[in-house]
Amino acid sequence: MTTTTQPGIRPANATGKITYTPVDGRLLDVEDLHVEFHTDDGIAKAINGVSFTLDQGESLAILGESGSGKSVTAQAIMGILDMPPAKIPHGAVKYCGVDLLTMPDDRRRWVRGAEIAMIFQDALSSLNPVFPVGWQIAEMFRQHRGMNKSDAQAQAVRLMERVAIPAAKERVKAYPHQFSGGMRQRIMIAMAIALDPAVLIADEPTTALDVTVQAQIMSLLQELQQERQMGLILITHDLGVVADVADRSVVMYAGRLVETANVYDLYRNPAHPYTRGLLESIPRLDQKGQTLAAIGGLPPNLLRIPPGCAFNPRCRMAKDVCRVDLPALREVASGRHSACHFAEEVIDA
Amino acid sequence: MPEIILPKASEIGRSTTSEVILSAKDLVKHYPIKTGILRRTTGHVKAVDGVSFDLHKGETLGIVGESGCGKSTLGRLLVRLEAPTDGSVEFEGADMAKASGRELRALRRNIQIVFQDPYTSLNPRMTVGDIVGEPLDIHPDVTPKGGRRKRVQELLDLVGLNPEHINRYPHQFSGGQRQRIGIARGIALDPKVLICDEPVSALDVSVQAQVVNLMEKLQDELGLAYVFIAHDLSVVRHISDRVGVMYLGKLAELGEEDEVYDRPTHPYTQALLSAVPVPDPTLRGKREHIVLQGDVPSPANPPAGCRFHTRCWKAQERCRTDVPELILRPDGRGEHFSACHYAEPRAVVDTVDVTDVEPDERFADTDVRDPATIAAVEGQPGMDGPVQDAEGLVEETPEQRAADMSSLTMHDEGHPGKVEDPRP
Ligand SMILES: Nc1ncnc2c1ncn2[C@@H]1O[C@H](COP(=O)(O)OP(=O)(O)OP(=O)(O)O)[C@@H](O)[C@H]1O
Ligand SMILES: Nc1ncnc2c1ncn2[C@@H]1O[C@H](COP(=O)(O)OP(=O)(O)OP(=O)(O)O)[C@@H](O)[C@H]1O
Ligand code: SF4
Ligand code: SF4
Ligand SMILES: [Mg+2]
Ligand SMILES: [Mg+2]
Q1: Is residue B381 within 8 angstroms of chain A, CB to CB?
Q2: Segment A43-68 mean pLDDT
Q3: Cα-to-chain-centroid distance, residue B220
Q4: Which of B213, B363, B372 has its CB closest to that of A273?
Q5: Domain's final residue, options B338, B354, B386
Q6: Which of A46, A258, A324, B338 is packed most tightly, with the most Cβ within 10 A?
Q7: Are strands A248-253 and A59-63 parallel, antiparallel or unpaired?
Q8: Is residue A14 classed exposed, middle or buried when 0-12, 13-18 and 19+ CB atoms within 10 A define those classes?
Q9: Of B283, B354, B389, the CB nearest to A287
Q10: What is the DSSP letter of A298?
């Protein structure tokens, strides 16, 4: 393997592998990311210039409704988009200062799993049904760390215990279908953290689960993150989950970020009409006699995103300028960004 | 026979004075488990195992509980899509199992169901007109004055859809619009009871609010009673007058909305409520979280005694053997139904009354009509959904357009619900 002088990369450790160290705690820099899908009907612009950062120990939520581009963003960071049909015409995903998009394939594969790991919504289809779960976890150690079979197996048991699988020793040989949905998600988490990644991306990790199980999984994730100082990207459409666990949140709409803020500001005083509308439309467990209001209409067709602000057909504040000029994501208060021409009015509302 | 120790149905619902319209009495549904090549029955899934409650005229009874606890099975028993293994359903005092022929048809007409998945519950090869009108064909005796087509258009209008779209197919509508079609079909025969099985669970949050508001409006206008089945405790609180909490085929707790949410006495309800995230970061770390250990046991082999005892932090010896009855138990203020030997109130939700708080109409609105319909009526561009859009994929053909136009009978006299352009 070549040594290199790129920032952030410490050449060759004892095992001959390159290690990455964050500069000033910065793990990820996603810069002006664009992703499009080439379909029979035309080019679907799924991601249209997304930029954000992630620091060590930080929980960042990506919030958005169905189709807004949350999973595609995660897949682009992980390097698991199918290309074609996907294409990344522009942008960078820097991990410890090194652009993953231009990295050689073999190195990228190594980064994936060892440095950046991901948990998917549907644990059943992400685990291999024909191998015992313990074997699947152990394989991570054998392939990446060159461990022998019995050591790897012992590590697998230890990890299964860490994610609170009861009787882990006995169940290490069990198959995925022999576990409940919540248990399978724990096993996915065990696999994801096996190699001590610096970044963990969780794409709707609890959407398919019951609330009591969701609570178990979220508290496990938070615990692991604190214990290992991981950077966590939590993808969800659930405003309640974001309020419970995230430090900072970015709100996506039609493949763009419409707002970024720390969660306290975001809920107390949103700076974008879409975020405001979302908060008006959700029923709250702790409120009685609530009147719900909905955002009209639907998110746009990605083949034909409206000119100007993509939210303008549904926005009750839209003016003529919104149908022509694309609002840039700009700083509207300290540490807060909004992509609305009238963000100041929204904040003051 | 399973053990059934339940309150008399007549005891339930004491808190509401209005008349009982639908009554579930000791309902049981066991599904046989068949194994081996001989398909011998080796056990039973006890999906619903002794459920009793009364539903009153015009009220909403929410049914909550986690996956597999028997909510959908209960829904199917109530509309008699399936026959119960034991127990009965009475509509206005008449036992549905004993009714026959015409009687049964009349009973069934009054209890309709709306399903969860707007993507699979509508036949893709039928037009919206045929889907909504089908119940009228099955019950020709109720065909309304003015004919079927007029009735279907009225129904579409009632659920906030554009009556001109009577000839379109389900795939030309968005999820929220499809759920409206399901509701229109559900109310076609003017039923008194609508069973809704997760009617908004598949929808995006902003669209959920449109459909929930629509359902509330229809209830006011038509005097419908709802059994609203869902796993989302926040939506259920919002829409329900009374709430039943199910665990492994049985009701754990049943009471008025604030009795269950503010003064729950069953440990399972308390754990469930404490696990629901609230969209307010300032409450972080301030709310009590009761983390349950382990998983829900299999309904094929439910624990003896109290079904919750394998996960209950309060369980005593007696809980392993004695089935706790669902009876009125003190909740600190009054009493409501709870199936726990050691029922005691524990507040896990800090409720704020926001009855007087109006939503900020600059950002979202309370109009119950489909926004694409409003836009079409107002001639605004851009708001219409998948009709010419992404998931819908299909453009309207000129023939369809012509058919749509020719069906425009009631619309010409002016749209009944016409509104001003809401935007500045
Ligand atoms: N392989 C593909 N080909 C074409 N379009 C795609 C493909 N994968 C994703 N898309 C489109 O990209 C857009 C963004 O999808 P994405 O999966 O990121 O949404 P999401 O925000 O994760 O939504 P959800 O909450 O439903 O998971 C969608 O409109 C989707 O249809
Ligand atoms: N036709 C059937 N044959 C056998 N078992 C069934 C059948 N229908 C349901 N069950 C079982 O009965 C139990 C209750 O199922 P049901 O669908 O009523 O639960 P639910 O509360 O609606 O769950 P969910 O929230 O997942 O919709 C489950 O264990 C289920 O597997
Ligand atoms: S830019 Fe205009 S249309 Fe977009 S959110 Fe702001 S006010 Fe609404
Ligand atoms: S009866 Fe016993 S096991 Fe059941 S909920 Fe009450 S205390 Fe817990
Ligand atoms: Mg997704
Ligand atoms: Mg169900």
Answers
A1: yes
A2: 92
A3: 16
A4: B363
A5: B338
A6: B338
A7: parallel
A8: exposed
A9: B354
A10: -
For residue A321, what are its two tokens? 């300028």
pLDDT tens per residue, range A165-192 = 878 888 888 888 888 777 888 888 888 8
**How many residues are listed for chain A in this entry?**
349
Local structure of residue A29 (DSSP, 8 states) = E
A261 within some domain: no
- Tell me the C-alpha to C-alpha distance, in Å, between residue B102 and each of B105, B136, B141: 5, 15, 11
Nearest partner of A282 among A312, A237, A315, judged by Cα: A237
The total domain count for chain B is 2
- Pocket (CB within 6 angstroms of ligand 4): B 266-267, 306, 308-309, 312, 314-315, 319, 324, 340-342
Residue in A110, A161, A168 with CA at minimum distance from that of residue A140:
A110
CA dihedral B304, B310, B315, B318 (to 10 degrees): 20
Amino acid, single-letter form, for residue A234: L
pLDDT of residue B119: 66
Structural domain includes residue B142: no
pLDDT at position B10 is 43
Question: How many structural domains comprise chain A?
Answer: 1
- Does A290 map to a domain? yes
Distance A66 CA to ligand 5 centre (A): 7
Residues lower than pLDDT 50 in chain B: 1-16, 382-424
A334 inside domain = yes
Nearest C-alpha of chain B: how many angstroms from A47?
Answer: 16
Reference A182, options A154, A233, A218, A155; nearest CA is: A218
- Residue B155 Cα to ligand 6 middle (Å): 27
Helix-then-strand count for chain B, H and E: 11, 13
Residue A293 is assigned to a structural domain of this protein: yes
DSSP 3-state percent helix, strand, coil across chain A (nearest 5): 35, 25, 40
ipTM, interface predicted TM-score of the complex: 0.85
Instruction: Please indicate if any CB of chain A lies within 8 Å of the CB of B386.
Output: yes
Grouping H, G, I as helix, E, B as strand and the rest as coil, residue A30 is strand
pLDDT band at A17; cut points 50, 70, 90:
low
How far is C-alpha B88 from the geometric centre of its chain's CA atoms?
20
The CATH number of whichever domain residue B266 belongs to comes to 3.40.50.300
Structural domain for A294, as ranges? 271-349
Interchain CB contact of B361 with A (< 8 Å): yes
C-alpha A140/C-alpha A143 separation (Å) is: 5
Domain containing residue B375: 370-407
End of a domain among B292, B316, B338? B338
- For the CA of A311, the nearest ligand: 3
> Does the CA dihedral A72-A78-A80-A81 come out positive or negative?
positive
Measured in Å, how far apart are chain B's first and last C-alpha atoms?
A: 65
CB atoms A291 and B277 under 8 Å? no
In this model, does residue A349 exceed pLDDT 80?
no
Dist CA B340 CA B245 (whole Å): 13
Residue by residue, DSSP assigns A163-209 as TT-TTHHHHTT--GGGS-HHHHHHHHHHHHHTT--SEEEEESTTTTS
